Amino acid sequence: MRFVLNWLINAAALWVAVELLSGLAVSSTETLFLAALVIGLINAVVKPILLVLTIPITVLTLGIFYLVLNGLLLYLAAALTPGFTIANFGSAFLGALIVSAVSTMLHLLIKAERKGKS
Question: Are 11 and 36 contacting, i.e. CB atoms less than 8 angstroms apart?
């Protein structure tokens, strides 16, 4: 159940990013959900490895490289998902910021909703 919820949150966050940025595009709703799945898998498998490998540069840049890494991973998701395109790295960078912000807000809303029910 948690996996499906995270997948839907990623899809909603990606949809917001696609709507706000002209440099991001998805060809269909199915592509949007597939891209959200790919983003989730990349964040679960590839991102932890890259975070450990890039600790020195992240520390030197006071954490700013973490944002660049998020943009690169979104760019990778677009490369792996047919029908999901990103025009340039700037769009990937801004898209990653939007996806991160929206997914964080949605997770907090759901957490508050669950807390209120108990």
Answer: yes
What's the CA gap between 23 and 91, in Å, rounded? 5
pTM: 0.91
Q: Are 81 and 110 in contact (CB under 8 A)?
A: no
Exposed/middle/buried for residue 17 (C-beta within 10 Å: 0-12, 13-18, 19+): buried
What residues have CB less than 8 Å from 117, skipping those under 6 apart?
none
**Count of CB atoms situated within 10 Å of the CB of 111:** 10
- Supply the pLDDT for residue 18: 97
Angle at 111 between CA 110 and CA 115, to 5 degrees: 115
